[in-house]
Amino acid sequence: MRIGVSGGGRDANRVAEQATRAEAEGFSTIWFAGGADGDPLLNAAFAGHATTQIEVGTAVVQTYPTHPVHLAGRAVAVADAMRRPGFVLGVGPSHQPIIEGMYGLSFEHPGRHTEEYLQILSAALRGTGVEVDGRDYQVTVAATGKDSGVPVLVAALAPRLLRVAGEVADGTVTWMANARAVDSHVAPRITRAAEGAGRPTPRIVAGLPIAVHDDVDEARGAAAKQFAMYGTLPNYQRILAAGGAEGPADAVIVGDEASVTAQIEALFDAGATDFWAAPFVVGEDRNASRVRTRTLLADLASR
């Protein structure tokens, strides 16, 4: 199974330690989340430089604050700093409260913005060249013939971005999409788009919170508090509804070892190519929950 885990922090040594541990435990990927208060690209460079084979990914870099040509240059710099293949660039438009409320930028047309952005970014990374005369970007990227080898994944939840992810990018990285949502919504749309564009089978990275804990009600109660914010954002509300979940607590993966294993296997059966595991702690003995979750994930990753 391709199982990845979350990493993060502001200390280069700590990030490097996280990555070397994840690599030693057999995880396929270490994912670094993006936000307004940190730089996942910097952490990816630290992690990739300290390791030899684990994939290093961003999930995700926000598109609005960074011009696509500039982001392509930064992505190539990360790949160069790693001194080896294995960097995957995940990007996404983020959400209205962040883009408008924090950055003061318009979030009126996120679908259009992201489609134009990806045309430019992908061309710059692949060296194919492109001219985009759009509503949000008017950019000419000269063909270089030099492919950076950096794949691009899109945080795609809605139909338009799933189409774009299949047509232009290398796949999608989702958050809060359970097995039902992947099976009925994500996989069919992105796969159909890739086939129509003559593109390879797209990668589908399904990210979900996870905790191995015997008391499922207690685990869901903890998840309801820790992940409440995601239930307030329209994009996540829609993907939760597609999965038949009333809120984040219904989408998380929780239970004992056998139950959690079955839920992870269901994600792959639904069409996911990767599982991005985001462990969270439950109960008074927080370390016990953490250890059980990590142990099971490492065991499944090594299969």
Description:
The protein has 303 residues and is α/β, with parallel strands linked by helices. It is built from twelve helices and twelve strands. The protein has helices spanning 12-24, 40-50, 68-82, 96-99, 110-126, 159-167, 179-196, 216-226, 234-242, 248-251, 257-270, 286-301; strands spanning 3-7, 29-32, 55-58, 61-62, 87-92, 130-133, 138-141, 152-154, 171-175, 203-212, 253-255, 274-279. Strands 1, 2, 3, 4, 5, 8, 9, 10, 11 and 12 form a ten-stranded parallel beta sheet that branches. Strands 6-7 form a two-stranded antiparallel sheet. Helix 6 packs across helix 7 (179-196), helix 7 packs across helix 9 (234-242) and helix 7 packs parallel to helix 11 (257-270). It starts with a strand and ends with a helix.
Structure keywords:
single chain; alpha/beta; two-stranded antiparallel sheet
Q: Which helices and strands, and how do they pair?
A:
Elements: E1 3-7, H1 12-24, E2 29-32, H2 40-50, E3 55-58, E4 61-62, H3 68-82, E5 87-92, H4 96-99, H5 110-126, E6 130-133, E7 138-141, E8 152-154, H6 159-167, E9 171-175, H7 179-196, E10 203-212, H8 216-226, H9 234-242, H10 248-251, E11 253-255, H11 257-270, E12 274-279, H12 286-301
Parallel strand pairs: 1-2, 1-12, 2-3, 3-5, 4-5, 5-8, 9-10, 10-11, 10-12
Antiparallel strand pairs: 6-7
